[in-house]
Amino acid sequence: MIKPFLNDNFLLQNTTAERLFHDFAKNLPIIDYHNHLPPDEIANDKKFSTITEIWLKGDHYKWRAMRANGIDEKFITGATSDKEKFIKWAETVPYTMRNPLYHWTHLELKKYFDISETLSPKTADVIYEKTNTLLQTDAFSVNGLLEKMKVEVVCTTDHPTDDLMFHQQHQQSDRAVKMLPTFRPDKLIVIDGPDFLDFLNALEKVVGKEIFTFDDLLIALENRIDFFDRLGCQLSDHGLSQLYDVKLKRENLDNILQKRKNMERVSCEEAQVFLMACMHELGKMYHQRGWTMQLHLGAIRNNNGRLLQSVGADVGCDSIGDFSQAEGLSSFLNRLDAEDQLTKTILYNLNPRDNELFATMMGNFNDGTTAGKIQWGSAWWFLDQKNGMEKQLNTLSNMGLLSRFIGMLTDSRSFLSFPRHEYFRRILCNLIGQDVHSGELPNDIEWLGKIVEDICYKNAKKYFDF
User: Fold this and answer.
1) CA distances for 254 relative to 2, 14, 259, 456, angstroms
2) 148, 162, 188, 379: which could join 158 in a potential S-S bond, CB 3.0 to 4.6 Å?
């Protein structure tokens, strides 16, 4: 018997999986503790003029698929109309079968707009008009969309020099959804980055003091950490290729900073020492405030120089990198742990070959103070699909405690991405249901249901205590 596409039991392959999802997971609220949503659009409760604006603008997942389908760049990031861009996406969707975009696209159409038809050139005009009409109603404003998905908390990703004006504005409103900032200082610690000096100058203006020495930099960063903390920030985030096992030579740090300020070349070794010295000091600051530190490791970014020049960064030209991770990550965590300064930490790997590495690394530094203090985060970016999620869940089960996992996040720039939480929940319930039906787990539906509720919502609620 062929099952209908995207029916109520989508991805649920047995009765136990169906019961776990429908009775325990389906209606839980969402804590989205890592995303890239624009704070101004949340604070101002933006309404989008077209489905293209909310769905395709800035979505590099879709852009990659359209390029692979032979769509001209003018219909992706160019100056063509929203209708033309949507039609080209509709042409692409049927060719995304077995890519997670096919599932996400139709989950989003169904969950937000109650559209069950598959998107194709035949249905594009009708879907474009229907979605655009709904987007003009109050229920489809930004906060309406978040409330529709039962989102309780969103943690945006913010640079230390941000004034957080829109977070303050939102906090003074009576909106049900809580929006909190996340501290992302990478531009100020990757000293050989192309825009380091620009961001350093911006930081000097914000704190009102010129930065000459490494200690000056630390004081300025702590100034901004305190500012973020006052506005409810409880997480930091670092998106780095890798961490390094290096000796922290404090006496050299001022010289390295001065070389960069003088436009002199900083060697790879110097850049690594500077990065790890910054990370160590920042890690201690996070611990002192009870923040959670997130480490996203393993991306190689902006591979296509032509598109970087013509369109910009973060346009769908990033890949999985093959960086060495174990020694640098171990050294970094161990140094903080030895000083009793290791805060709650979430590790994310982009290369699937590192799954077991990350799953076992986190277990080295749990200390009994918090259940699941060191987390291996949800399958990230290119791994954020059915196969990648299943591998992450199975590896975590084998090498850690799945029951203490804090679950899913969107890591998205789109307000239509929250059905990814449902996607994850269905996959989780199906895996557990399969084990019950194969006799590998007892048919204790109440206990299994509790575990599902914990992973999908309650573990994160307790872990962060927003």
Assistant:
1) 67, 62, 9, 46
2) 162
Task: Count other Cβ atoms within 10 Å, centred on residue 106.
Answer: 20
Q: Are residues 226 and 327 in the same domain?
A: yes
Same domain, 346 and 217: yes
Q: Which of 243, 226, 239 is nearest to 280 (CA)?
A: 243
Report the candidate in 441, 322, 423 with the shortest Cα–Cα distance to residue 378.
Answer: 423
Show which of 116, 140, 164 is a domain's final residue.
140
In angstroms, the Cα distances linking 321 to 228, 350, 353 are: 31, 8, 11
283, 341 contact by CB (below 8 A): yes
Q: How many residues does the chain have?
A: 466
At 275-322, the pLDDT tens digits run 999 999 999 999 999 999 999 999 999 999 998 889 888 888 999 999
- Which long-range contacts link 56-65 to residues 24+ away (Cβ below 8 Å)? 56/85, 56/86, 56/89, 58/413, 58/414, 59/413, 59/414, 60/314, 60/315, 60/316, 60/318, 61/101, 61/316, 62/89, 62/92, 62/101, 63/315, 63/316, 64/316, 65/92, 65/95, 65/96, 65/99, 65/101
Scanning the structure block, which residue is given the tokens 């799945």? Answer: 402
Q: What is the pLDDT of residues 255-266, one digit of tens each?
A: 999 999 999 999
Tally of domains in the chain: 2
| Burial bucket for residue 262 (CB in 10 Å: 0-12, 13-18, 19+) | exposed
| Residue 328 DSSP SS3 | helix
Residue 277: Cβ within 10 Å count: 21
Tokens at 9, concatenated: 């039991």
Can you tell me the distance from the alpha carbon of 453 to that of 20, in angstroms, rounded to the nearest whole number? 9
| pTM for the full predicted model | 0.97
What span, in angstroms and rounded, lies between the C-alpha atoms of 291 and 282?
A: 11
Structure tokens at 144: 């309406």
Residue with tokens 């973060």: 314
My answer on whether 41 and 52 are in the same domain is no
CATH of residue 460's domain is 3.20.20.140
2 in a structural domain: no
- For 398, the enclosing helix (H) or strand (E) is helix 386-399
Cα 202 from Cα 209, distance rounded (Å): 11
Question: How many Å apart are CA 226 and CA 129, to the nearest integer?
Answer: 47
pLDDT tens digits for range 56-89? 998 999 999 999 999 999 999 999 999 999 999 9
Distance between CA atoms of 41 and 145, rounded to whole angstroms? 12
